[in-house]
Specification:
The longest helix is centred in the middle third of the chain and has 29 residues, at about 110-135. This protein is of the alpha/beta class. It has helices spanning about 20-30, 45-55, 70-85, 110-135, 160-180, 200, 205-215, 225-235; strands at about 10-15, 35-40, 60-65, 90-95, 140-145, 185-190, 245-250. It is built from eight helices and seven strands; from the N terminus they run E-H-E-H-E-H-E-H-E-H-E-H-H-H-E. Helix 3 (about 70-85) packs parallel to helix 4. It has one domain (about 5-195, about 220-255): NAD(P)-binding Rossmann-like Domain (Rossmann fold), CATH 3.40.50.720. The chain is globular and about 50 Å long. The chain has a seven-stranded parallel β-sheet, sandwiched between helices. Helices cover about 45% and strands about 15% of the residues.
């Protein structure tokens, strides 16, 4: 099989929340596959730092600081892309936050903040991206980052669980509406990955032991282990794959 199927040369990819963790690993991976990558965060300094790191590795990368959960901020960012002649062929909705609290102690503002950042933002950025993909008439790829909690709930992370379950069905809704425009919308569901957001769990001996004992792979995943699935879903290799979610979890869901 030709590796050209997975070649992203000539494509532009916007990856939200990509200055660290999974997002940064995906920025590196899609860049290495040939894509021009647009790095995103709300903080300009974080964007500048990530762009500098990727440029040091020889990649074609741009930066865009905007709030993915704010409609006006998203609209302004896409207006700027239009003015710069940046046409997004690949969108990775990766931006996300976590808030851990029992539901009986959970404040509405914290619930809403997690839902807005992890789910509503994917709708807002996806809508602006797809509008332009449809107008250009050459299709495109949307990859929404879900989670194990797209499939299985866990105590103390209710808004995250609900948002990530929504990501799975948002991808299917996108596929149902946009497949006729040659847009493929799919999800990746990471397992327990060694990231900044999970550091408190990694540092908890009891939770760390549970992750390792409950997973057939007996270890945490690494951010770079999501790159293969992302390249597949971003490339011509997945042109007839739509509305699906690929779990990259070391086998955790298979033994529930």
């Amino acid at each position: 099989m030709s590796t050209a199927l997975f070649d992203l040369s000539g494509r532009t990819a916007l990856i939200t929340g990509s200055t660290r963790g999974i997002g940064f690993a995906l920025a590196q991976g899609l860049s290495a596959a040939g894509a021009r990558v647009i790095v995103n965060s709300r903080q300009q300094a974080a964007v500048d730092q990530a762009v500098a790191k990727l440029k040091e590795q020889g990649f074609d990368v741009r930066g865009a600081a905007f709030d993915v959960a704010d409609q006006d901020s998203v609209s302004a960012a896409f207006d700027a892309f239009d003015q710069q002649g940046l046409e997004i062929d690949i969108l990775v909705n990766n931006a996300g936050i976590q808030h851990r609290a029992p539901m009986l102690e959970l404040e509405l503002k914290d619930w809403q903040r997690v839902i807005d950042t992890n789910l509503t933002a994917a709708f807002l950025v996806g809508k602006e991206t797809a509008r332009r993909m449809v107008a250009r008439g050459r299709g495109g790829k949307i990859i929404n980052i879900g989670s194990l909690t797209s499939e299985a709930a866990r105590a103390t992370v209710a808004p995250y669980t609900v948002a990530k379950a929504g990501i799975k069905l948002l991808s299917r809704a996108m596929a149902a509406e946009w497949a006729r425009h040659d847009i493929q919308a799919n999800s990746i569901g990471p397992g327990y990955i060694l990231t900044d957001m999970n550091q408190a769990l990694v540092d908890n001996p009891q939770f760390d032991a549970w992750v390792k004992s409950s997973n057939p792979s007996q270890r945490w995943g690494k951010p770079e282990e999501l790159v293969g699935a992302a390249i597949f879903l971003a490339s011509a290799a997945s042109n007839y794959v739509n509305g699906q979610i690929i779990y990259v979890d070391g086998g955790w869901l298979s033994v529930l």
